[in-house]
Structure formats: C-alpha cells, structure tokens
Amino acid sequence: MTSDSPNPNPLLQEWNTPFNIAPFELIKPEHYKPAVEQAIEMARREIDDIIANPAEPDFQNSVEALERAGSRLNQITALLFNLNSADTSPELQAAAMEVSPLLTSFANDITLNPALFLKVKSVYDKMDQLGLNPEQRILLDRKYKGFVRGGAALSDNDKEKFREITVELSTLSLKFEENVLAETNDFSLHLTSEQELAGLPFGIREAAAALAKEKGVEGWLFNLHAPSFVPFMQYADRRDLREKLFRAYSVRAFRGNEHDNKAIVKRIVELRLQLAQLLGFSDYASYALEERMASTPEEVNSFLQKLLEASTPAGKRDLEEMEQYARGLGFEDKIERWDWSYFSEKLRMERFKIDDEALRPYMPLEKVREAVLGLATTLYGLTFRENGEIPVYNNEVTAYEVHDGERGIIAILMLDFHPRPGKSGGAWMTGFREQSREPGAEVDSHGETGRRVIPVVSLVMNFTRPTPARPSLLSHSEMNTFLHEFGHALHGMLSDCTYESLAGTNVKRDFVELPSQILENWAWEKEWLDTWAAHWQTGEKIPDEILMQLKKSLTYNEGYACMRQLGFGLLDMAWHTLREPFDGDIVAFERAAMAPALLLPHANGSCMSVSFAHLFSGGYAAGYYGYKWAEVLDADAFSLFRERGIFDRETALAFRKNILEKGGSREPDELYRAFRGREPSLEPLIERSGFIEVQTGT
What is the pTM of this model? Predict the structure, then answer.
C-alpha cells in the first residue's frame, strides 16, 4: 500500500527491506494508531467481500478467505506488542493502551457477525462431504469453534456484554504488564561497603559496579532483574540484604501505589468468569481447557495431584537436608524464602563441587550462542548466517538468515540478549511474522503447493551483560534458558504449514512447551558440552569430574523445584475455577491455594498473584500446568534420543517432521504418537527427577 502524504506512515507502506522486515528506525509510536485504524478498515472490506460473495459458502471462499483477511493488521500489531515487551517507552506503552480496545472491538466485530458466522457454520456442517485434507479440517474446526467461543451464538444483549468484557480485559492485561515492569525498574539496592558484598563472586561484584557507574553513583548497584537478583540471592552472605532484596521483589505491584495490581487481578478474574459463564461454562478454566490436551479442570487437577504425590517425599527430603546442612553451619533460625537459594547453592557446591559461578568461565555467551545454533546444525542440518543489512529494533539485536541446505533460507532469527529499562523481565520467543504458504501453483521439493512465507522469529532474553574486564559469561541455568527459548524458535522456524494461524507455536497451550523443554535435556549431556564448553581465557575444557558431577546434580532439589511449580499451577487453577466473583483477601486466597505444595513459609507482606504475568498478561490463564504436562512429554520423547544417541539424525528428523514442522495442523496427541509410536508415559519424568529413588528408599 502506498500513500500520497508528504509524511507517509511507514506501517502502511510496502517495505523495501531485506526479507520485507519492518524498517524499525522509521516507525514512531505515533504511527501505530492511524495505521491500525486504516488496517482495520482494510480488513473490514475483506470481511465484507466474504459476506457479499453470492456463491454457495465453501472452504475456499469462506474459511480460507477469512484466514487470509487482515494480514496488514496482523503485521502491524505483531510489531507493536512485541516492541512493547522488548523495547518499550512511555510513548509506546500509551500507543499500545490506545490501540488495544480498537483491536478487541474489531475482533468482536468478526466473531459476533451473524452473516459471517452462518457462512462458516454452513461449511462446518458439511465438513465430511468436502474432501478436505487434515490441515484444512483442523482450520475449519478452529474457525468454527473460534466463533462459538467468541460469542457468535449469543443473544444480541449477551453479545454486547461479551464485547464490553473483552475490551476491558485487553486493556487490563496491558496495564498489569506495565505495572510489573515499572515496579521491577523502580527498586535498586545500593551498596557502598566491601563488607556488604561478602560471599559474592568477583564477576557479580564487577557487574554491580558497572551498573552503579552507569547510573552515576559510587559503589555497587543490584536490582530486581534476573542477572542481578538471582546471583545475589545465591551468594550474598549478608542475610539482611538478601531479605531486603527478596522482599522488594515479592511486593512488586503490591505496595498500594499507582502501580498496584490488586484491583486489576480481582477484576481480570471476575471478567474472565463473566465471559465463561456467558458462554455456558461454569468457570473460566472449563472454558479455556476445552481447547487443550487436558480438556477439563478435573483432568488438570488430577494430573497435578499425581505429580504432587510423586514429588512430595522428595520435596520434604530436600527441605530436611537443607535444614540439617544450615544447622551444621551454625544457622539457628528457620529457613525463609530468602535463605533457600543461598544454602541450596552452598550445599550443591559441597556435594557436587560445582556451582553456577564456577561454570560461568566455561560458558561465554558467544560460545553458547555458537553451540546452541550448532546443535540445530547437528540435529536438523540448519546453518545460521549473520546479516547486518536486516533491520532490527535495537542496536543490541543481531539478525541471522537460517539456511536449510537445498531449501535455502527458511527463516530469519533475531537474538536479543541483555536487560534494558524498556525490556520486560524473563525470556521469551516471539514472531514478527508467522510462517505460511501463499496461494499459488508453485510446488516445492516436498510436494507442498504455494510459496512458503518465511517466518521472522525473535528470542528475547535477559542475560548477564559483559563488563569492561570480561565478556558476558552465562550461568548453567542461563544457558539452559537459551536452549529452552531456542526450542520454541525451532518450532517457529521449521514450521511448514499452509495457514498462519496453525503454524509454528500456534498449538494447544499444553503442547507448546514440548519443543522448548526437550532441548533443555542437552544442557546436562557431557557428549554435547564436550564439543564446545571451554574456559574463556585458557581454552581449557570443563574437567570430566565437573561434567560428571553436573549430570549427578540434575536431580538435586528436584522435589522442591517440582513442588514449587505445582504450587504455581494450583494457584492458577484456583483463580480460574472460581464460580463467583472474588472480593476477598488476595494473600489469604493464594496461600490457601498453594498450601498443598508449600514447603517454605510465605514471606509476610508478599503477594505473588499481582506480579504473576504468565496468568494475567501472558496467555497462560488456566494453563500454567502445561509446563509440567510438557515435562512428561519431553522426558518421554528424550528417552528415545537416549536409546538411539543424543545426536541421532533419524530421531531428530522424525521429531522435526512429526512435531516441529506440523505446528497446529494436527491434534497434538496424534503428532506425539506419530513421533514416539505410542502414548506418552509418566515414568521417564519420575525417573529423571529422582522421585523413584526417594519412594523406594534407595
């Protein structure tokens, strides 16, 4: 689309850039609202054309046409919301807040349009007579259910209620995320005495000194972002300072100020319940789970309970060992949450003679990057070529062409490694463009019809920054995070679907973590680590003894870790199985919900729900159990690699063909059976976690 305006909006232009990637440097926050408004009008005309088509509704003129409608709008919104998480500003946050209700209203205009729904329903009702392929059947099923779940069958009055609920929800989720980021950025721990740094390794001190210098103050600064917060909690001898930092972290968005999320949590939960009940469900979890592998709250709660029963003996053992160890060091107080990481790291060091800091010198970020990308070369034959001509949204981002042998370039990958004030915490994979196939007669080497649109995938992380004296050195857990997110990236990059809404990671929520979590298994394998991990100064390989101890440490505190995750899942299900609006005490509610998985006492004055972004702004509502669900799948799937070899190309290509390429174009259980040859088993996870040994007393 072109414009005659003397100052044309770049969001509405054709992009004459490598791979048609957005010209980020030209796009300003003020461009988004007018571009979204115009793109919505373009999409409306496309929808109107579908409705006005006098031909009998069929898959191509109704369902496929609907799938293709709004492509410009999707392009613009992907930019806005990705940047709002990875490289935001007050102006961009304001633009996102302004645009969000418009987008939700338009989405409602589609799903609540009776004429459009009748077209799709007409095709759905005769699905079995249309000779559709499996992917087309899935698309038709998803589109039809999307209308029903989007309120298409409601009365006119209830449709208006549905509109109001969804618009308010979209705004509240953005506000929730903004508040958490503001609170995370608001606190810093300023230390001025060497004595206050007792226990902290040199590299952590150095990073804190660099941060203080950047902020123009003397001494050392620590903050609530993971590269600073996590090692401080692991190594700082000063218990009072650990407590201070922990309490600051645990009261984010719970301080009664303008960034407080208590009222937002209650309102989001209430609106989700209203939406579910409007659609005939008793609670929001029943609504959300209808389209998951675990399809009911009962199935999820049964799953959580089975894992809780399996992990509780190990969790109690972990706590007892930690208490005994702390007492042996002369610690007489009760272990609190700000003590766990500290004593856990000390005991791990004593038991296995390794710790995260000891491994950092062997894991410089550049080496880790080469190794992770190289793993994709070994398993899938992919190669990565940096291309500095590809536009990026921040000068710290690096873009790569992803090559797949004779197929050529199959994706673009962007890597964004370090914390910034405008970047949300954590790590995530996202897409600026999903993979799809354009309609046409072109046939590729796999016999697929239509030109493949290559995806643009981005990995956003918050790894330890380099300092003037040394490069960015990752902890083992940070390296593990890289593998996890890269697993998601492979899902997006290797996708080979026809339809964008089914491509890549657009799968059922409790299946999406399988490609990411299976890749984490390599983090513990000597056979892989031996190929690349070397001291950044001496080039020395990680000693075999350390690698052996690292592998042994895989089950260390796994009972505690599992119970902690299950506590999050229980909290999620508690919020989303409510059948009445909640106006009680949030802290009392969450503590009761998490009590079955509780090992350590809650910190007085803390509240998790108000900063639990996965639930209230990240799309995991009634879905947090999916991490443990996917662990069952990944442990079972990786057991096949163990049998055949962790670099076995045949096994890897089977995983690629049956899981990574298929996206959401088949049902997850069908895809898993195609790869594994059977249903998943819980036993490999129980065994990997070390729970069997505890249960049998060995």
Answer: 0.90
